[in-house]
Automatic annotation (TrEMBL):
GO molecular function: sodium ion transmembrane transporter activity
Residues that span the membrane, as ranges: 12-34
Record protein name field: OadG family protein
Sorted UniProt keywords: Cell membrane, Membrane, Transmembrane, Transmembrane helix
InterPro entries: Na_pump_deCOase (IPR005899)
Length: 122
């Protein structure tokens, strides 16, 4: 087998492989387009005529903010101690003038993971 015959066979295998890969990709694209036609039902608002007038739902009142019974001076002392510990300094040099609570909007899986990590350390 000569060098040219080996190169010719290698080229033929490469071309056939590329044709097969692109053929499979085109088949997948067609299947996905068919699934979109079969399963997706677009809603046209311009042609949609409601048979009954549905009233809008009543707005849900916001949950009342719970007042904390914790003493403000105790909270300031805890915050001052935490900041002093993280900065490796004395509480004498710190003066917390104001603070505000922020709402925890992290997902449930994030809260569960954080709880697991904290529980594993203690």
């Amino acid at each position: 087998m000569s060098l040219f015959e080996a190169l010719g066979e290698g080229l033929m295998v490469t071309v056939i492989g590329l044709i097969i890969v692109f053929a499979v990709l085109i088949i997948l694209m067609l299947v996905m387009m068919l699934m979109k036609v079969v399963f997706y039902k677009p809603q046209n608002d311009s042609h949609h005529v409601p048979s009954q007038q549905v009233p809008a739902p009543a707005p849900v009142p916001a949950a009342p903010v719970e007042e904390s019974n914790m003493d403000e001076t105790e909270l300031i002392a805890v915050l001052t101690a935490a900041v002093a510990a993280s900065l490796n300094t004395s509480t004498y040099h710190l003066n917390i003038k104001s603070y505000r609570r922020i709402e925890n909007t992290s997902p449930a899986w994030n809260k569960a993971g954080l709880k697991d990590v904290i529980d594993a350390r203690f």
